[in-house]
Specification:
The complex is a heterodimer of chains A (275) and B (376). Chain A has 10 helices and 11 strands. By secondary structure, chain A is an alpha+beta fold. The longest helix of chain B is centred in the middle third of the chain and has 23 residues. The chains are: A alpha+beta (275), B alpha/beta (376).
Chain lengths: 275, 376
């Protein structure tokens, strides 16, 4: 079973050490994402329509809201990986491009000696399981190195052009607002489509085209985000958090959280630290 | 970096509205924003964008009864709404009248004294406390001056217009998203472009030693000159972005001071007691002001001549007039509904405006009257 070894939450993001032995379904989140292979089975991360290796030579970068999934490429054992989640604010404060402020230039990151150095430092810090004021600095440097590398030599930004269409259709925007307001209810896509004045297939297609993800993934993202926040900032039981997010039982909430975040919610709360 | 930190914290990028607003509300732990917006400006599309950018469990109130320029009465009503709803941040979205109103209302939200107590002319700036509520400004195609400046003016119930000026009035954070201007009409776009050009030219030429402001103004001017006509020919995001950058530059540079054009704009608005299109006014007034200033500012005219590709035998004023001439804006002050009586009343007011003091040549009431009359 996949498990979390350590999770640290910092000022502009979080870092987690995961032992993953199962795939993670296609999902997206508001945060940017960096996935570094550490040991065990090699893995592959699909970003959009392409798959990228996570192994001794390469890490994978995923921009905010980019759909992605994770799978093991070897059947041997679990994959130990370091996973960074970078808040959109970091991109807004660091990005060089007024056109594509919220994205990496390329998903494929080479593990240069400098990148590896910061990955090792972060990993050591997480294994110490102690709060450290070094965390934010390490997370910043690791992310910065990867971000700069991802934009190096990127001349053809055609793959990013699609991002320009984001938020351009008012029907999609309306559905985003409705989902934000009602994500704890049992929101049916059929109903959302009707509110947007579209048929279900047309709504699905339009939403995917504009946002890069399906409405279901967007709803799951909102629920995962809120679940993590509640786990980290409230004393509510896992069962109550699940009920408040609209799940009918702890088991269904745990299943949902595990398939979207990678590990069960109780594990997440147990190992997570806020810096 | 797309975060600019001159004067205040400014997010500038395509489509940045949603994530910047979400991130700033979240990072500052705001739960009850009060949205201030012109009722006719919050169309369905903008409303959907705005509401989709709020973090979950955020409870938003709205104030849309915004006059065409800030009045004492509206300031008090806005402050009352904010307090009655226990709001914890103001979000002013739209033109300068919205952002300026929100700036002034911040004072009334924490002080019980009449607004006139805080008038700059009465030495009231130092009476403005430190704990003003946060204000996030989101200028649309205009409103940049309000979004990055430390002043606002309010029409008091007694009838006079008073200046409020204090660094604490600068919005806490500003979001500049060029996608908000896509689809704007030619008239609105031309006005925004002419306004940006006038601000950049006047800030650059204004008296005072402020090399950073000069650099910002010239950069903004170059962007506006290259992209204003392009965007009018074909709406495209790149030119929209450059035009917005020009508007922002002009507004950042105005802390150096402006000139007679802006002094006239303010005075005409005061005497007509209605909001006037600043770009339309500047397009008419600026060439005449450049003619008036030609001798006093001739050394600084050279870079401007190159920028506007002015021919050797032409004056800068002629070149600028030709550049702005085909914009779809009114051809005269009378077409804007301004009569000779209003020009006569505006001239002495403009002469006493702070922007007349920084005009490169000493300018008096009769000069200002002649400038206005020449384009009436």
């Amino acid at each position: 079973m996949s498990e979390a070894i350590s999770v640290h939450h910092g000022a502009f993001g979080r870092a987690a050490l995961y032992q993953l032995d199962k795939p993670i379904i296609t999902h997206a989140h508001r945060e940017g994402h960096l996935i570094f292979y550490l040991s065990g089975s090699k893995a592959s991360v699909s970003v959009g329509d392409s798959a990228f290796p996570a192994d001794e030579s390469y890490a994978v970068a995923v921009g905010p809201w980019e759909p992605h999934s994770f799978e093991l490429t070897e059947n041997s054992d679990a994959c130990l990986c370091l996973v960074l989640y970078i808040k959109p604010m970091w991109f807004l404060e660091t990005s060089h491009s007024a056109e594509f402020a919220l994205s990496f230039g390329s998903p494929c990151i080479e593990l240069t000696p400098t990148v590896s150095k910061w990955v090792n430092r972060l990993t050591s810090l997480l294994l110490e399981e102690e709060n450290s004021d070094l965390f934010d600095g390490f997370l910043y440097e690791a992310t910065r190195q990867c971000f700069d590398q991802s934009w190096h030599g990127v001349n053809d930004r055609t793959p990013l052009k699609g991002m320009r269409t984001k938020f351009t259709d008012y029907r999609v925007r309306r559905s985003l607002r409705l989902m934000q307001e009602m994500f704890t209810d049992d929101v049916e896509i059929e109903w959302l489509a009707r509110q947007a004045g579209l048929s279900r297939p047309h709504f699905f297609k339009l939403f995917k085209k504009q946002m890069g993800i399906t409405p279901n993934i967007y709803l799951n993202t909102l629920r995962s985000e809120q679940a993590i926040e509640d786990l980290m900032t409230t004393g509510k039981s896992v069962t109550d958090i699940g009920y408040d997010l609209g799940f009918s039982s702890q088991a269904s909430f745990t299943r949902f959280f595990t398939s979207n975040v990678g590990i069960p919610p109780s594990d997440y709360r147990r190992v997570a630290h806020i810096i | 970096m797309t975060l600019i930190t001159y004067v205040t914290r400014i997010h500038f990028a395509d489509g940045v509205l949603e994530e910047a607003l979400w991130s700033e509300i979240k990072a500052n732990e705001k739960k009850r924003p009060l949205l201030v917006v012109n009722s006719d400006e919050l169309d369905e599309q903008l409303a959907e964008r705005f509401f989709a950018s709020l973090p979950v469990r955020t409870s938003v109130e709205m104030f849309s009864d915004v006059p065409s320029f800030p009045t004492e009465d509206a300031v008090q009503r806005l402050a009352k709404t904010y307090k009655a709803n226990n709001c914890d941040v103001l979000i002013a979205l739209g033109h300068s009248n919205v952002i300026d109103l929100a700036k002034a209302a911040r004072i009334a939200m924490v002080h019980d004294q009449p607004l006139s107590v805080f008038s700059h002319a009465e030495g009231g700036s130092r009476r403005i406390g430190k704990n003003l509520p946060d204000l996030f400004a989101v200028p649309s195609i205009s409103g940049f001056g309000a979004a990055v400046s430390a002043h606002t003016s309010v029409l008091m119930n007694a009838g006079e217009r008073q200046l409020l000026m204090c660094r604490k009035l600068i919005p806490t954070m500003t979001i500049c998203d060029p996608t908000l201007t896509l689809g704007a009409t030619d008239r609105i776009t031309a006005s925004a472009g002419a306004d940006a050009i006038a601000r950049c030219v006047e800030a650059y030429l204004s008296r005072g030693y402020n090399p950073p402001a000069d650099g910002i103004a010239l950069d903004g001017l170059s962007r506006a000159v290259h992209h204003l006509h392009k965007v009018l020919k074909s709406d495209n995001l790149e030119s929209r972005r450059e035009l917005m950058a020009a508007s922002l530059n002009g507004s950042l540079a105005l802390q150096k001071g402006l000139g007679a054009t802006n002094a006239i704009n303010t005075a005409l608005e005061t005497v007509s007691r209605r909001a006037l299109d600043p770009g339309a006014l500047s397009r008419l007034i600026l060439p005449a002001v450049l003619r008036f200033n030609a001798e006093a500012a001739k050394e600084k005219y050279q870079p401007l001549r190159q920028m506007f590709s002015v021919k050797p035998k032409e004056t800068l004023a002629d070149g600028l007039q030709a550049f702005l001439g085909d914009l779809p804006l009114p051809q005269s002050l009378s077409e804007m509904g301004l009569g000779i009586d209003q020009i006569t009343a505006a001239a002495p007011l403009a002469a006493h405006d702070l922007d007349s003091v920084t005009n490169p040549r000493l300018v008096q009431s009769n000069d200002l009257f002649s400038i206005m009359e020449s384009v009436h």
